[in-house]
């Protein structure tokens, strides 16, 4: 159910307008449906990047502010870039209590570079949307000397394998592209791929990786909302898929236990 790394990076090859509107149909539910980033990983990233309360952060692809709020609570000055207009409005609302946070409705590609301004560049489940030839070089150019890259990841929460086996036939019938189970081993490989990208960029050094196994419990309704934020489906196929999933999942109870890998990658700008 989680995209392969190749599929994840393929999103960066979409034209800008496709990427700009990709989440618009589910923007309202994204903020609440997506699992929060572990507090311990956020705290570790702040420590590893040596950020004090006067630090400035550039966030690339802030979405509705899922990670933004967690970092804004430290008192940082944040410039957050979000090309999706629906997310931009939501982020403004969700960050309204933080006067040092500015949300800019533009893409990272179109954003006018403010060279050597930021102590850190943050990406939370967003960096893979930026074309590979731009993401690392432009991020490094925006950083002060000895600035840090912080990449937060929550991979897609998955039910226990026995539950997946029960619902796989529903996926095969109505949404075959959803019919994939990864588990911790494959998710770890996806994360290692992103680590290698950072190293291969030759823009950063001293990469530190922190990783943890996360678990969440969703109601069936909330789990279906989560699925709606991962890929697009035609309305009829979505209705049939969700009805079939609900019927199968209700045999296991009224909630779904999910597990996934969370990680943070922190690397220093290479002078």
Structural account:
By secondary structure, the protein is α/β, with parallel strands linked by helices. It has one domain (5-156, 182-215, 260-269): Rossmann fold (3-Layer(aba) Sandwich). It is built from eleven helices and eight strands. Strand 2, helix 6 (85-94) and strand 3 form a beta-alpha-beta unit. Helix 8 (161-174) packs antiparallel against helix 11 (235-249) and helix 10 (220-228) packs antiparallel against helix 11. It is globular. The N and C termini lie far apart (39 Å).
Short description:
The protein is α/β, with parallel strands linked by helices.
Keywords:
single chain, 271 residues, alpha/beta, Rossmann fold, 8 strands, 41% helix
Helix content: 40-55%
User: How large a portion of the residues is in β-strands, by DSSP E?
Assistant: 15-25%
The outline comes out as globular
Q: State mean pLDDT (0 to 100 scale).
A: 92
CATH class categorisation:
Alpha Beta
CATH topology description: Rossmann fold
Count of domain modules? 1
Q: What is the secondary structure topology, with strand pairs?
A:
Elements: H1 5-10, H2 16-21, H3 27-33, H4 39-48, E1 56-60, H5 68-72, E2 77-81, H6 85-94, E3 101-104, E4 118-124, H7 132-142, E5 143-154, E6 158-159, H8 161-174, H9 183-200, E7 204-219, H10 220-228, H11 235-249, E8 255-269
Parallel strand pairs: 1-2, 1-4, 2-3, 4-5
Antiparallel strand pairs: 5-8, 6-8, 7-8
Helix pairs in contact: 8-11, 10-11
């Amino acid at each position: 159910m989680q995209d392969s790394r190749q599929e994840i990076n393929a999103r960066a090859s979409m034209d800008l307008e496709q990427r700009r509107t990709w989440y618009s149909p589910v923007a309202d539910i994204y903020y609440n449906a997506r699992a929060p980033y572990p507090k311990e990983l956020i705290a570790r990233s702040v420590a590893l990047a040596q950020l004090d309360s006067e630090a400035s952060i550039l966030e690339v692809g802030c979405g509705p502010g899922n990670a933004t709020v967690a970092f804004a609570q430290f008192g940082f000055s944040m410039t957050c870039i979000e090309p999706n207009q629906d997310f931009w409005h939501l982020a403004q609302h969700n960050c309204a209590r933080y006067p040092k946070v500015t949300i800019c409705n533009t893409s990272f590609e179109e954003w006018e570079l403010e060279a050597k301004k930021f102590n850190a560049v943050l990406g939370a489940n967003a960096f893979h949307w930026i074309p590979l030839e731009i993401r690392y070089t432009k991020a490094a150019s925006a950083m002060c000397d000895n600035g840090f890259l912080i990449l937060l990841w929550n991979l897609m929460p998955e039910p226990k394998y026995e539950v997946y086996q029960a619902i796989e036939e529903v996926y095969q019938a109505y949404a075959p592209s959803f019919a994939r189970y990864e588990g911790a081993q494959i998710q770890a490989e996806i994360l290692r791929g992103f680590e290698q990208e950072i190293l291969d960029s030759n823009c950063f050094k001293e990469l530190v990786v922190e990783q943890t196994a996360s678990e969440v419990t969703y109601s069936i309704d909330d789990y279906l909302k989560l699925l709606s934020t991962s890929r697009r489906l035609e309305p009829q196929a979505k209705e049939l898929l969700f009805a079939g999933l609900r019927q199968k999942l209700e045999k296991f109870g009224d909630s779904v236990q999910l597990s996934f890998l969370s990680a943070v990658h922190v690397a220093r700008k290479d002078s």
